[in-house]
Structures are given as C-alpha cells and as structure tokens.
User: Which sequence fits this backbone?
C-alpha cells in the first residue's frame, strides 16, 4: 500500500486512476453515476467483481465475504436503501481478513469510524446505525445494475476518489 500525500489515504498498488481508464477505454468502459462515499482506509482499489443482491439483509453478504476474496471486489445491490446498513465493522473485518480488495454498496454502512481503520476499500451510498436483517434472502453472482452500470461477475472494477468504473472481463486495465 502507498499513502496519498494530499489526503493521507491508502491506495492499493494495483489500482489505476479511473479518469485515465475512461480516457483509454472510451466506448467500452462503464462509469457509475451514483455518488458513492468512501468509508474504508483504502481510497483506491480494484479487482474482479463478485456480486450480491440483497435488500436490507446482511446474511448472504457476510457468508460471501467469509470466503477467500484475494483480488476481488464485492458489489452489493441493496436497492439503494439507507434505512438499514448491510455492512459494518464486524463484516468489514471479515472482508479485510479474507483479502478482499473492496466492497461497493448500493446501500448503507454503519460503524463508519471503525470502517475508516480497515485496510479495505468501501464505497457506499450513505450510513445508518440500524443493522440489516439476517434472513439470508438475496442472490449471489448475478448481474446487478445501478448508476447506469451493469456489474457482472468476472468484470473488472476500479474505484478511486473520482468514482467507480467497470471494464468487461478480458479487457486490459
């Protein structure tokens, strides 16, 4: 990891600047329109996409992050809800410990002060201290869409201070 001197934020060494990627891959790259906030200590991250679709439920997200995540980013479509958080410090620590590069949530997080200490990229719509349900409802590794982007398992995601972009699998980043 290296530190960005202007922000004091940690940047993952494998990440590329999203603006440069957009310039290099015009017409192929997708850019997420949702104005996601950064909550993790890692400001810039990238990896192969895994997906979870869950509405205000943490069980499937947690079980997915308990698996080896080396070189992967979990994209979570929680329906854009900020009513209940689907990621907090405990699940974030699980993700960090299993080598996930980051988590991008179309939903809410909680425990934001603790999330800022984790060596994990976390982007989300917002925060709410109310914890999500634990029914296990949801879908794993299906294409999810939000912010004008379809996030498909295996595609490559790049995130930094400018936003989140996606390149199709097999495209050189």
Assistant:
């Amino acid at each position: 990891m290296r530190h960005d001197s202007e922000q004091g934020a940690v940047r993952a060494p494998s990440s590329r600047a999203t603006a440069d990627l957009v310039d290099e891959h015009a017409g192929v790259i997708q850019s997420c329109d949702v104005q996601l906030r950064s909550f993790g200590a890692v400001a810039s991250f990238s990896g192969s996409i895994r997906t979870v679709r869950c509405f205000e439920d943490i069980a499937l997200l947690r079980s997915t992050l308990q698996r080896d995540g080396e070189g992967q980013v979990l994209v979570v479509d929680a329906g854009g809800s900020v009513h209940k958080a689907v990621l907090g410090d405990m699940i974030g620590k699980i993700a960090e410990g299993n080598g996930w590069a980051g988590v991008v949530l179309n939903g809410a997080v909680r425990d934001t002060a603790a999330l800022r200490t984790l060596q994990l990229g976390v982007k989300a719509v917002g925060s709410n201290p109310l914890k999500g349900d634990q029914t296990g409802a949801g879908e794993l590794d299906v294409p999810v869409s939000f912010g004008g982007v379809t996030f498909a398992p295996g595609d490559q995601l790049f995130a930094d201070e400018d936003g989140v972009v996606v390149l199709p699998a097999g495209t050189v980043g």
The longest strand covers residues 42-53. The CA atoms of residues 39 and 113 lie 8 Å apart.
